[in-house]
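Example S7 (structure tokens).
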């Protein structure tokens, strides 16, 4: 049987292979009494689904809400979850603090780290330059996109040295690639681009001749220049990794404890008349039911 941490690792491997964005949540500090221990971990998906263990239901609810914020902002976050009492717990400047009155005691800190898909590069052609790009790109953290179309490529390199290059450029632009590099001379590249029918904004995404001007001559050197240009665009040129639009996530406020709650199929809820209320856990739901019945 897989341990919780092993299961989380297996889930992460599957998500990375699919190019799915998620948040890795890891308990880095815990003060008894807590059910979570340092090292416990989980993954949080864009729809609020959690796979793994980072504490009881109330703590998990706080992690879920904060993780969605971290994923939206694409920034890591240290989440401090404290009970509604004066608990001596080391202060951490810059940490995101949540006071959860439903905690039975203790306090935990959870590091939330967004895991975004690596930029994918699709290389067209079987030339020496194409082969060299495929060899160099993974060395700088770029993934090679296959021809299945399952992932949108951040960059497309066209190194076919002939064929219908205009159509290849048009297809890459239409598919959403932010960088399209054509391996061709300046004169031939201009002739190819004239056949594409691209708008000015679309042409701004096409680089011809592809690659930084480093005086490259050999196929590996030209490939290095091309990969370098892609990296420069990623770091300073505004080139972004395409990500699937996250599903809409509904949040509510627990009417008992005031905690933010991500509404999902398993969220405790209670219907009273025409209103539906959502809760961080069964305890708050039951207390609210008693209040309505009194």
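Recovered sequence:
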């Amino acid at each position: 049987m897989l341990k919780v941490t092993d299961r989380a690792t297996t889930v992460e491997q599957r998500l990375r292979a699919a190019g799915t964005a998620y948040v890795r949540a890891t308990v880095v500090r815990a003060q008894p009494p807590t059910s979570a221990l340092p090292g416990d971990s989980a993954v949080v998906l864009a729809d609020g689904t959690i796979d793994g263990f980072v504490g009881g239901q109330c703590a998990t609810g706080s992690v879920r809400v904060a993780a969605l914020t971290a994923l939206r902002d694409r920034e890591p976050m240290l989440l401090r979850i404290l009970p509604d009492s004066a608990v001596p717990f080391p202060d951490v400047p810059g940490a995101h603090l949540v006071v959860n009155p439903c905690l039975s005691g203790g306090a935990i800190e959870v590091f939330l780290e967004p895991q975004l898909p690596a930029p994918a590069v699709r290389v067209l052609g079987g030339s020496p330059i194409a082969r060299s790009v495929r060899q160099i790109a993974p060395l700088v953290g770029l993934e090679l996109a296959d021809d299945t179309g399952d992932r949108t490529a951040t960059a497309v390199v066209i190194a076919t040295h002939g064929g219908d290059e205009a159509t290849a450029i048009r297809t890459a632009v239409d598919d959403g690639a932010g960088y399209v590099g054509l391996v061709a001379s300046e004169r031939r590249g201009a002739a190819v681009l004239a056949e594409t029918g691209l708008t000015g904004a679309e042409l701004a995404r096409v680089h011809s001749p592809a690659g930084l001007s480093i005086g490259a001559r050999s196929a590996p050197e030209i490939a290095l220049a091309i990969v370098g240009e892609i990296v420069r665009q990623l770091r300073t040129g505004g080139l972004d990794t395409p990500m699937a639009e996250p599903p809409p996530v509904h949040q509510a406020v627990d009417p008992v404890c005031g905690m933010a709650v991500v509404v999902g199929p398993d969220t405790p809820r209670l219907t009273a008349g025409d209103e539906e209320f959502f809760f961080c856990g069964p305890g708050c739901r039951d207390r609210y039911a008693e209040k309505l019945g009194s």
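Notes on this example. The chain has a mean pLDDT of 88.
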